[in-house]
């Protein structure tokens, strides 16, 4: 059935697009020789946040449709594509010197951008440790090294601070990205790190993946004490077959309605979510 | 063709409890402890999946038998007349307009209704006053299916990314998430439709000889075609509503059933339903255990397991021909 195949391909591509904060393309970059004002387009929410957080929002001339923060900047900056997917004409209209992405969905797009005479930098934002590095890289590219260094070291300090908990017991946590199919975060996702920083133990933390489909019975067998929902509501989860026997459901430790922007964007604000998660996880 | 070998039905019936027991004992969580409530919950979960697999597999295989007989085409399958794209569109609309968040049944019911509406449209386009011809049905089915698939694409490209995964779920198929009352309703519909089809078996046999021949044998062909199409659609739409679009079963299982008991439609719907149910349960067990605790989409397994099986069947039976 050709229609189904095409649709499947398309939908798969769009799903990958959801997990875009993940891959790394090792495209090298060359800092601008001139010391002038750099016009930059960011095609990732995390990078847009970084650019604004180091006080370079005046450099930002284009963004992805997925960038929503900070609102006052996003309002005036035109859209130049989706998350990791440039719309070349809209991009050219922004007349940037530089395009930053965490990863390009279509590697040909990177070439096409360079064909337009625009530089392209691919900056990984995969783990929490990547974030200070990304901040410094963006700082260098936009000639805001000082502000970037300050933000990066602040971030690293907070991170180190969080990493010294004197916890004796960790509660078992199941984090549900969405319910159909049941998606969770594995060892390679920064969400796993966030859960650990908040004093929990991710029940899927032994799987060497970032985001993956987990079976309902695995969740049940590993009996989480806390469930964190990024989508959906607690009553719906409690109604699932067999889940009434789960400790988290029995004790109604199901957290929903968290600020997803904080949790899902591996940018400078991501550590604020540790506090939110702590409130969910710790008794 | 009477020279090909036939097997009795009892080994299939015997295989049902054996396969189900095997599937019940295998899983990501290993062998659960029956004495703890949690262990019982794990078993309950597996049982639910096995029952869903049986119902969905039976529905798809039964629908495949009818479609292949009515359209007299070995490549026909439950989705060929647009049930899948119609149901997919309905599911996507339910997600797109946010009905799926309002009620658990919204997506399956929307899929079921649009699947049936689609086939009704296809039928009346093909009939245009008179009785629908086979070619008319196939042609209008393909056209309506193409239009609806592209409407679905339009929704997918317009939808916010948050809603995307629900639609993707429909396209890949999944046995994990059907509610219990839904499964009971679906099971009753599938069972009912299969019983009626078995009762109509003799007339279906006449129809496979061709419309005119069937007419001369005293079959009310127009009524029969419309009725059987409605039943096949009911089967396919129920399966899709329960588990999304699972491919391959509706195509290969009818062939396997025909190899088992021969081309007699008094036996075929039932045998195909048993084989289809067993096949889907086995595939689902593979899908949930092979890379546990991760799951792989069931549609991938049905195609990977079914493909070689289909080829083996083809090589074995090449001399006898496909359609007898």
- Computed structural class of chain B: mainly alpha
> How many whole angstroms does the radius of gyration of chain B measure?
20 Å
SSE ordering of chain A: HEHEHEEHEHEHHEEHEEHEHHEHH
Rg of chain A (C-alpha, Å): 20 Å
Order of helices and strands of chain B: HHHHHHHHHHHHHH
Structural class of chain A: alpha/beta
Mean pLDDT of chain A: 84
Termini separation of chain A: 52 Å
Q: How would a crystallographer describe the biggest sheet of chain B?
A: none
Distance between the termini of chain B: 5 Å
**Kindly state the mean pLDDT of chain B as a whole number?**
84
Q: CATH fold name of chain B, please?
A: ABC transporter involved in vitamin B12 uptake, BtuC
Low-confidence stretches of chain B: none
Q: In one word, what is the shape of chain B?
A: globular
Spans where pLDDT lies below 50 across 5 or more residues of chain A: 13-34
Seen as an oligomer or otherwise, the chain set is heterodimer
How much of the polypeptide of chain A forms β-strand, as a percent range? 5-15%
CATH architecture of chain B: Orthogonal Bundle
Helix content estimate of chain B:
over 70%
Offer a few descriptive terms:
heterodimer, A: 283 residues, alpha/beta, six-stranded mixed β-sheet, four-stranded parallel β-sheet, 12 strands, elongated, B: 324 residues, mainly alpha, ABC transporter involved in vitamin B12 uptake, BtuC, 14 helices, 74% helix, globular
């Amino acid at each position: 059935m050709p229609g189904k195949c095409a649709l499947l391909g398309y939908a798969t591509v769009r799903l990958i697009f959801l997990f875009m904060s993940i891959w790394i393309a090792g495209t090298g970059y060359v800092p601008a020789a001139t010391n002038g004002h750099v016009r930059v387009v960011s095609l990732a929410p995390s990078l847009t946040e970084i650019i604004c957080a180091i006080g370079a929002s005046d450099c930002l001339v284009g963004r992805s449709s997925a960038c929503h923060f900070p609102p006052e900047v996003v309002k005036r900056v035109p859209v130049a594509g989706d998350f990791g997917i440039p719309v070349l004409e809209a991009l050219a209209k922004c007349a940037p010197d530089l395009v930053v992405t965490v990863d390009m969905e279509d590697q040909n797009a990177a070439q096409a951008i360079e064909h337009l005479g625009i530089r392209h930098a691919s900056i990984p934002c995969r783990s929490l440790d990547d974030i200070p590095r990304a901040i410094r890289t963006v700082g260098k590219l936009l000639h805001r090294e000082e502000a970037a260094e300050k933000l990066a070291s602040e971030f690293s300090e907070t991170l180190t601070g969080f990493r010294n908990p004197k916890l004796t017991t960790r509660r078992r946590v199941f984090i549900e990205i969405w319910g159909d199919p049941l998606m969770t975060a594995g060892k390679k996702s920064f969400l796993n790190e966030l859960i650990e920083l908040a004093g929990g133990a991710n029940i899927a933390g032994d799987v060497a993946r970032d985001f993956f489909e987990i079976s309902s019975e695995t969740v049940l067998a590993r009996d989480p004490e806390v469930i964190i929902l990024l989508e959906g509501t607690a009553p719906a989860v409690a109604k699932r077959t067999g889940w009434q026997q789960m400790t988290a459901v029995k004790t109604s430790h199901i957290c929903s309605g968290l600020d997803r922007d904080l949790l899902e964007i591996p940018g400078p604000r991501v550590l604020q979510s540790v506090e939110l998660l702590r409130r969910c996880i710790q008794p | 063709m009477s020279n090909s070998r036939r097997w009795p039905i009892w080994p299939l019936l015997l295989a049902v409890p054996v396969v189900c027991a095997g599937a019940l004992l295998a899983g990501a969580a290993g062998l659960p402890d029956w004495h703890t409530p949690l262990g019982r919950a794990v078993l309950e979960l597996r049982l639910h999946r096995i029952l869903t697999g049986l119902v969905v597999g039976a529905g798809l295989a039964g629908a495949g038998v009818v479609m292949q007989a009515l359209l007299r085409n070995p490549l026909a399958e439950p989705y060929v007349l647009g049930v899948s794209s119609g149901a997919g569109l309905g599911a996507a609309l339910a997600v797109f307009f946010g009905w799926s968040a309002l009620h658990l049944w919204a997506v399956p019911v929307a899929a079921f209704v649009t699947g049936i509406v689609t086939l009704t449209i296809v039928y009346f386009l093909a009939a245009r006053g008179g009785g629908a011809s086979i070619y008319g049905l196939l042609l209008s089915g393909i056209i309506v299916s193409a239009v609806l698939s592209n409407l679905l694409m339009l929704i997918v490209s317009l939808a916010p990314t948050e809603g995307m995964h629900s639609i993707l779920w429909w396209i890949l198929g999944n046995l994990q998430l059907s509610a219990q009352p839904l499964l009971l309703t679906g099971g009753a519909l599938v069972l009912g439709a299969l019983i009626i089809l078995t009762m109509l078996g003799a007339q279906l046999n006449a129809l496979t000889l061709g419309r005119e021949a069937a007419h001369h044998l005293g079959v009310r062909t127009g009524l029969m075609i419309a009725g059987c199409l409605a039943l096949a659609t009911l089967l396919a739409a129920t399966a899709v509503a329960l588990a999304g679009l699972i491919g391959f079963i509706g195509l290969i299982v009818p062939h396997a059933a025909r190899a088992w008991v021969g081309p007699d439609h008094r036996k075929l719907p039932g045998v195909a339903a048993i084989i289809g149910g067993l096949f889907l349960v086995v595939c689902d067990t593979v899908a949930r255990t092979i890379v546990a605790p991760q799951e792989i989409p069931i549609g991938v397994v049905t195609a990977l397991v079914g493909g070689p099986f289909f080829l083996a069947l083809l090589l074995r039976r090449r001399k006898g021909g496909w359609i007898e």
